[in-house]
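ok, trying the design again with the full structure, not the truncated one.
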């Protein structure tokens, strides 16, 4: 995906950073045929515009001991939706919380150690005020996964 409001060099810089966010400005410069200083200015500009939100590390959950990737559809009372979302955000297991259209419910992703951990967490969810129902599914296989967007 190319962004029309960005020039070719900015698109190329983003493409390389999406592939390897640890590239130095000098390395990026060699890839896009710009000086290190010019690349630094462009990267800083992309950050100031909010196009680059942050630089981060992606941890492989399986290798870090999290063998269960679980998705929850959590139905909540409208009046407590924000409170329930904030409660979920405080839990280390939770990686994503989304409010979706169609009704008062949240789509939630969590990384768990094992089935016992999932069972314990489900029991915990039943005690949260405002949650009216919980549906859960666990991931069997990933066909495609992507952080951010590809350029």
């Amino acid at each position: 995906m190319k962004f029309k409001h960005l020039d070719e060099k900015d698109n190329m810089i983003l493409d390389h950073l999406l592939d390897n966010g640890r590239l130095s400005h000098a390395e990026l410069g060699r890839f896009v045929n710009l000086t290190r200083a010019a690349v630094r200015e462009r990267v800083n500009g992309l950050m100031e515009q909010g196009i680059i939100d942050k630089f981060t590390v992606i941890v492989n959950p399986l290798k870090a001991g999290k063998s269960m990737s679980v998705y929850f559809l959590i139905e909540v009372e409208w009046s407590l939706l924000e409170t329930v979302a904030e409660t979920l955000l405080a839990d280390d297991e939770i990686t994503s919380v989304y409010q979706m259209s169609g009704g008062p419910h949240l789509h939630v992703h969590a990384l768990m150690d094992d089935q016992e951990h999932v069972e314990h967490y489900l029991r915990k969810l039943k005690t949260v005020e405002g949650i009216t129902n919980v549906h859960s599914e666990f991931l069997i296989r990933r066909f495609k996964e992507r952080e951010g967007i590809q350029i």
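Keeping the full-length input from now on. The chain has a mean pLDDT of 90.
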